[in-house]
Write a structure and sequence with these properties.
Layout: H1 2-13, E1 16-17, H2 18-27, H3 37-49, E2 53-57, E3 67-71, H4 73-83, H5 95-106, H6 112-136, H7 148-182
Antiparallel strand pairs: 1-3, 2-3
Length: about 190
């Protein structure tokens, strides 16, 4: 139940309404664990039924049906238990790899536009990660030392930066290979 654990982690950082949690999720954990707002609301209901979280009316004087969620002791225990279990790394599963294998097997399939599109998407996400790092973790002599929590958050962000940079480099290399073998021009390659 990784979504439940991701949500409890976020709620431990800050009790939130479902709406605020979904917005925060999109801007942090959502970079490496995707969930729609509907999935988040359904999971919150399941977690509350399981006794892992509870909710109370938002302090808006009852003008809305908004609820604020927080993690209960049972949820904290569940998160601790889950965090201590072993998991296997995720396998790479991307249909682009199959397309490239098909290209190798049956000849040029014109994959350059898709590779260029993917490179652009990875460059865009890489820029977003770097902007987050610059905003949340400024470097330089005047930056205060990071807390344990912030250091771990930055370390996770750095994996995202490396991941996107790796994919960007790989897609550019694939485009260069296809250009070499298929006679594509430099215009087919995305700019650095």
């Amino acid at each position: 139940m990784p979504l439940a654990h991701a949500l409890m982690t976020s709620l431990l950082e800050k009790p939130s309404s479902g709406y605020d949690l979904a917005r925060r999720f999109d801007k942090s954990i959502g970079f490496f664990w995707r969930a729609t707002h509907q999935q988040i609301y359904r999971e919150l209901a399941r977690m509350e039924a399981a006794g892992w979280i509870d909710s109370m009316a938002a302090p808006d004087g009852g003008r809305t049906r908004k609820r604020v969620y927080r993690v209960r002791d049972a949820g904290r225990d569940e998160l601790l238990s889950w965090a201590g279990t072993r998991t296997e790394p995720s396998d790479l599963r991307d249909d682009l790899m199959v397309r490239l294998r098909a290209d190798a097997a049956i000849g040029p399939l014109g994959l350059q536009p898709e590779l260029a599109r993917r490179a652009a998407l990875h460059a865009q996400k890489l820029a977003a990660y770097r902007a987050i790092e610059a905003r949340d973790f400024p470097s330089g002599g005047t930056a205060p030392p990071l807390s344990r929590e912030a250091a771990l958050q930055r370390h996770i962000l750095r994996l995202g930066v490396r991941y996107e940079q790796g994919w960007l480099d790989w897609t550019r290399e694939a485009l260069q290979l296809l250009a070499h073998w298929d006679g594509a021009t430099a215009a087919d390659l995305p700019s650095p």
